[in-house]
Design goal:
Elements (H helix, E strand, L loop, with lengths): L16 H10 L13 H12 L5 H4 L10 H7 L12 E9 L2 E8 L5 H13 L5 E11 L2 E3 L3 H10 L3 H12 L6 E10 L2 E9 L6 H15 L9 E4 L12 H6 L2 E10 L1 H6 L5 H18 L5 E2 L3 H12 L6 H4 L2 E8 L3 E11 L11 H9 L8 H25 L2 H8 L4
């Protein structure tokens, strides 16, 4: 092997695996730089051998790293320090009828009974004429955090944003960073000498966090040239006033991403034959569990039974930011008995954060899952948000029904156990 002092990085790819591993162990080569010198698959295999060298073969062998054809994308834009990939079971529920169109719902999950339950909910919805849905786009948010010398200066800085000419200027700065980014509003919030600036922007078909973060950096650079901000300290590009990846009253009230409402009226016959319960039982349980119970627990946006199950399953399957399931899953389910034993049900989700381009959607399997959701066209981001909400409604119906009929444990014992 070449002495470490003679190593030319362009020669790394010509070395045998044993010599590259020796370089890694000696510290002459860092594992995170392997992709700069080697083909993606070989880089992943060697990194796994290096990082898992002290683990038994049974552990190393349980992490698959071969036969994954998309490392070239994954290692550039989705993950660092890649040692392999994780196969997650993928189920397909549906069809789910929304606004007269059928959609399939891909769910990546390890929870047995979830896809079967969702499929039952979809069947009940379809036999009831389908879901009607409305959708409004409010834009993605980011809230930089600034620190001013004193509260008077902070107040003056906050007031600066009330001048339309100032907003016009920062709009120009923000939108110069992307042809898709369109600034919608800028709202300052003062807390002592801290100033939070909540920026809202349209980001096209992308979920848009990187896009809006880039635009906010441009705004901050411009503010440094403004007299009232000359002594400011930029504490963080994000001050948690966005609000990102956390359930919050802010997003519950002011929205983030897409705000979707779905509704369906279930005939008594469908409730009895498909869901094995009654409108009265469902309505009482929804109120007692999803409203009273969640209120006692102090939940924000938690007026639902298991919306996060559906949201996280769809997010994983379609390459969304899974951490945003925490905010996107905030849901209120409302039921009302109507007619002769029929049941009206609605689901309100005020901040579904999804995209059909960028991030994990660039991985071919996740992109293909987006394509299979609609048979006759390529699904839009707005439709994706509506499918998420519609699937949540269907999932709520099925789980609540299982609780009413006492079948929850029975179904999980059958579908969520190895033996």
């Amino acid at each position: 092997m070449l002495p470490s002092t003679q190593i030319v990085m362009s020669d790394i790819s010509s070395l045998p695996d044993s010599e590259i591993l020796a370089l890694l162990r000696s510290g002459s080569l860092k594992h995170y730089s392997l992709e700069h010198h080697l083909a993606p698959c070989r880089a992943v295999q060697l990194r796994q051998q290096y990082l898992l060298s002290e683990h038994p073969d049974s552990v190393r062998g349980s992490v698959p790293c071969e036969s994954y054809p998309h490392y070239d994308i994954a290692t550039k834009s989705c993950c660092e320090g890649v040692i392999g990939y994780l196969p997650v079971p993928l189920g397909l529920a549906g069809p789910l009828l929304i606004n007269g169109r059928e959609f399939s719902v891909p769910i990546a999950t390890t929870e047995g009974a979830l896809v079967a339950s969702l499929s039952r909910g979809c069947r009940a919805v379809s036999q009831s004429g389908g879901i009607q849905s409305t959708c409004s786009y409010f834009g993605m948010t980011r809230a930089p955090l600034l620190k001013l010398p004193c509260i008077r200066t902070c107040k003056a800085a906050a007031d600066w944003f009330s001048d339309p000419s100032h907003v016009t200027q920062i709009t120009r700065e923000f939108e110069s960073t992307s042809q898709h980014a369109k600034l919608r509003s800028v709202t300052p919030k003062q807390a002592g000498k801290l100033l939070f600036i909540r920026v809202v922007a349209a980001t096209g078909e992308a979920m848009g966090m990187n896009m809006i973060s880039k635009g906010c950096e441009k705004i901050i650079e411009y503010l440094k040239t403004v007299e009232v901000f000359k002594d400011m300290i930029v504490l963080s590009l994000s001050g948690n006033y966005c609000v990102d990846k956390k359930a919050s009253a802010m997003n519950w009230i002011n929205h983030r991403g897409y705000s979707v409402n779905c509704e369906v009226t279930l005939p008594a016959q469908v409730i009895a034959s498909v869901l094995k319960t009654s409108a009265g039982a469902l309505s009482e349980l929804n109120f007692s569990k999803n409203h009273v119970g969640s209120s006692l627990a102090g939940c924000i946006g938690g007026n639902n039974a298991h919306a996060a199950n559906i949201v996280s399953g769809v997010f994983l399957a379609t390459g969304q930011d899974i951490a945003q399931a925490g905010t996107s899953a905030m849901t209120m389910v409302i039921t009302e008995m109507v007619g002769e034993g029929d049941l009206y049900v609605s689901a309100t989700m005020p901040c579904i954060e999804v995209g059909t381009v960028g991030g994990g959607t660039s991985l071919p399997p996740q992109r293909n899952n987006l394509k299979l959701m609609a048979v006759d066209h390529e699904i839009t981001t707005e439709e994706l948000a509506q499918v998420v909400c519609g699937a949540v409604l269907a999932g709520e119906l099925s789980l609540l029904s299982a609780l009413c009929s006492g079948d929850l444990v029975k179904s999980h014992m059958q579908l969520n156990r190895i033996t």
